[in-house]
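Now for one specimen:
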Amino acid sequence: MTALISTRDLVKRFGDVTALSGVTLDIGHGECVGLLGPNGAGKTTLLSIIEGLRTPSSGEVRLFGGDPRDASSRVRLGSTPQATALPESLRVREVLEFVAAHFPSPAPRSRIVEEFALEPLLHQQCGALSGGQQRRVAVALAFVGDPDLVLLDEPTTGLDVDARRALWDAVRRRHASGCAVVVTSHHLEEIEQLASRVVVIDDGIVRADDTLGAIVSSVARRRVQVRGIDVADIRRIDPAASVTREDDVVTAVVDDSDALVRALVESGLPFADLAVRGATLEEAFLTLTEKTPETRKAA
């Protein structure tokens, strides 16, 4: 089956800055892919090329098997960019109808209104909406054309926790119905909640591409939490450990948790409530990108 997105050795340069450096990637039907990377890593540049908004310097990109710069290749695509730019004078209902008119078989408007909780906003002008409400409308518009693939670039920017979770539920429903989703986010919890596959991009290079579980398990570091001792006690045992303290809980992120636990027992220190667990997605992400330059150009 033809991949929905296929890139081969994709390179994009802006003058002396290389935003993408040989990205090869395939995304198939029904996938939900989290695209992670630090600011300036190349995520937005990659999405803009996939959408046909920018032309690669070299390499190949195919969208539904065609050139993304051709309008016919984008008929089954929906997207929400980072910046929300709704027409201020139009009402939400009018914007939904305007966008739907560009697609041969748009989704039933009632479904979009219900899933994204837009009913209270339908008669309001877009310019009168709060930033969070505008963002919710912008994400809903990505699904108006009943697409087979949606690209969401930082979809929940500006939303509070409850609104973010409600939007996740709506995206999950669309994904469960068969729509493939590619989402970028600074909220690593968001990627954990939505994606089953994670692609980490840094300095324009794909650093990792695997299932969420495999990405996390690939990082050997472990988190050890304990009460009853000080940060200095841990650092004497393992100088390389990353140690923090919150209230009376000391947390150490280490390469060898077994060795640390053995050393704690042998030390005779009066520790209690010992807990050891594997890396989180955030810890895996930081480990995969920790060798990147401190200064990056914006993507």
Residues 5-217 form a domain with the Rossmann fold fold (CATH 3.40.50.300).
